[in-house]
Design brief:
Elements (H helix, E strand, L loop, with lengths): L10 E5 L3 E7 L8 E8 L5 H4 L6 E3 L6 E3 L5 H22 L6 E5 L1 H10 L2 H4 L2 E6 L7 H9 L2
Parallel strand pairs: 1-6, 6-7
Antiparallel strand pairs: 1-2, 2-3, 4-5
Length: 149
């Protein structure tokens, strides 16, 4: 990954399907110093703990064959729901003028889902995207990752 220049006061959102870190660069583009503004957690147990029903079955037109229907991936649905919540929170913060520029860092699936849900007011403020899971890294490790070290 190439180095990303984070100007002073640029926000960085680091998210996955269960956790989101809202960070602000208190440093400059040469020496970033990210500070945690907010941290959110979203309970998202594995699908096997969320769904208890057996897969559904369908009969074909003749009634002779029965086919199983794929299980619902409840874990993935919760990730998408969390991405929706984060997109909505970003809209409210942008509307209040809390940030002018933001970098989105998320696992590829979550980033794609968030991108679809971002309001134009937020999308216009996105200055960079990183398709990586960094939620379990320390703030210093996140800084290093964004700096390309």
């Amino acid at each position: 990954m190439s180095a990303m220049k984070l100007e002073h006061d640029t926000w960085v959102l680091v998210a996955d399907g269960e956790k989101a870190l809202f960070l602000r660069n208190e440093g400059d583009d040469v020496y970033p110093h990210l500070q945690v503004i907010r941290e959110e957690h979203h309970a998202n147990p594995p699908t096997r703990e969320q769904g208890t029903d057996r897969p559904g079955r369908l009969n074909d037109a003749s009634g002779e064959h029965r086919s199983a229907v794929a299980d619902t991936d409840w874990h993935q649905i919760e990730k998408e729901r969390f991405a929706d919540e984060i997109a909505e929170r970003l809209y409210k913060l942008a509307h209040k003028g809390r940030f002018e520029k933001i970098v989105l860092v998320a696992q590829p699936q979550v980033l794609g889902e968030m991108r679809k849900k971002l309001h134009k007011e937020v999308a216009d403020r996105v200055v960079g995207e990183v398709a990586k899971t960094l939620t379990n890294h320390t703030v210093i490790e996140i800084e290093k990752n964004l700096a390309g070290d």
